[in-house]
Structures are given as structure tokens and as C-alpha cells.
Design brief:
The structure is a single chain. The protein is mostly helical. The protein is built from 13 helices and no strands. The two termini are about 30 Å apart.
Length: about 220
């Protein structure tokens, strides 16, 4: 990124691009603080996942096309971390369970919306889409105070979503309330999920901040 900014002539293939194309390439090298696993497994609130990403888009006036290129770069970079083309290809076939890889690939389209929507709108859209993919097994989209908690638990549990959601339903009411409130916090000032999906009248919902506890 530093070389692109200050010495582009050292990279002839980059120097030869049009200005708009150069900006797209530079965007792939930004410090976006974007952890894709946090999104796919719904481990973090939308502020922790998307705020830096959205700020960089606003600063550079980057479009959804630039976000799309970022994810193409992310995918090739992941494979390129292996020392040979064969090993890089094997990484996607052997080291990534197919459902997990599909979850990453399907998320690209949703994340492109960060160029136009708020962090919480993007996160909610992603969570809803993940549930609808499993609607046959899990039933209709949940509503009510615990809905966001259930949507996030689905992503976290992956292949074990049904027993985890069943276990959530058998928790004592006070534990369900605590998880429903904590998992509905957005870490974005002035933003919240749709009222039909959160404990909108719970006084704890207006408290903060949201904590990301990471191993």
C-alpha cells in the first residue's frame, strides 16, 4: 500500500491502470480491520465488524465494485498463503468444510451493501438470509425479543444449529433475557435492529457498550 501511494512507478502494472482502477486496487490493501469470521459466525456486533470498513469507504468514496474486488483479493490471498498452486487449491477443498466455505462466499453479496447501508442494516440482512437458507429445517423467521439472539446462534452453531436453538429455548427466562439483550446490542451509536427482532422495551437495551469477548 505504501509503495502504491508514494512510488507507483515501481509497479508498472499498477501504474498503467486508470485512476479509478488504481483506487480499487489500493482499497484491497487498506487497513479495514475486517474479520470475515466474525461475520460468518456472527461472533461480534455490527459496529466491531463493519465500522472501520464503512469509514474507509466514506473517506475514499469507494463503490460496491471496490468492495467486490476486495473480496476477490481476499479469496485469492487465502489460497495464495500456501506455497504452491496445488496446495492453495487443496486449501479450499480439504481444509474448509463445504458449508463453511459456502457461508463465506455467500456473504460477499451481503457485505457489498456496506457501501450504501448502515452497519446494523447489513448485519440484520445477513442474519436473516442465513436463517432463510435453513427455513425448511428451522421454521419461519423468528420474531420477538429473542429473535436476533436466535439468528446469531444459528450462525455460531453452524451444523449444530437445531440442538443449540432448542437448548436456548430451555434456558431460564432470566438467562434468555440476558442473552437476548446482549446479542441485540449493535456497538453503533443511534443504530438498532428492527423492533420486531429485539427486546425493544427492555431498559437494558439502551445500555452499553457492547463487548466482544474473543478467545
Amino acid at each position: 500500500s505504501y509503495v502504491m501511494d508514494h512510488f507507483p512507478e515501481l509497479l508498472p502494472s499498477f501504474k498503467g491502470l486508470q485512476e479509478e482502477e488504481q483506487r480499487s486496487v489500493q482499497f484491497t490493501q487498506c487497513e479495514l480491520c475486517f474479520n470475515h469470521g466474525w461475520l460468518v459466525q456472527a461472533e461480534a456486533p455490527p459496529g466491531a465488524i463493519f465500522t472501520r470498513f464503512r469509514q474507509m469507504i466514506a473517506i475514499g468514496k469507494d463503490s460496491s465494485r471496490d468492495v467486490a474486488l476486495y473480496f476477490v483479493h481476499w479469496l485469492t490471498d487465502l489460497a495464495g498463503a500456501e506455497p504452491t498452486p496445488l496446495s492453495g487449491s487443496e486449501k479450499f477443498v480439504i481444509k474448509f468444510p463445504l458449508p463453511v466455505l459456502n457461508s463465506f462466499l455467500k456473504s460477499f453479496k451481503t457485505v457489498q451493501r456496506i457501501a450504501t447501508d448502515t452497519e446494523t442494516e447489513v448485519m440484520e440482512g445477513y442474519l436473516v438470509s442465513r436463517w432463510l437458507e435453513h427455513a425448511e429445517a428451522l421454521g419461519p423467521l423468528p420474531e420477538g425479543p429473542a429473535a436476533i439472539a436466535k439468528l446469531r446462534l444459528l450462525c455460531m452453531a453452524q451444523m449444530n444449529a437445531e440442538p443449540i436453538l432448542d437448548g436456548f429455548g430451555r434456558l431460564p427466562p432470566e438467562d434468555q433475557r440476558l442473552l437476548s439483550v446482549e446479542m441485540a446490542l449493535t456497538a453503533c451509536d443511534g443504530q438498532r435492529y428492527s423492533d420486531s427482532l429485539i427486546p425493544v422495551h427492555d431498559p437494558l437495551l439502551s445500555c452499553g457498550p457492547a463487548f466482544l469477548v474473543y478467545y
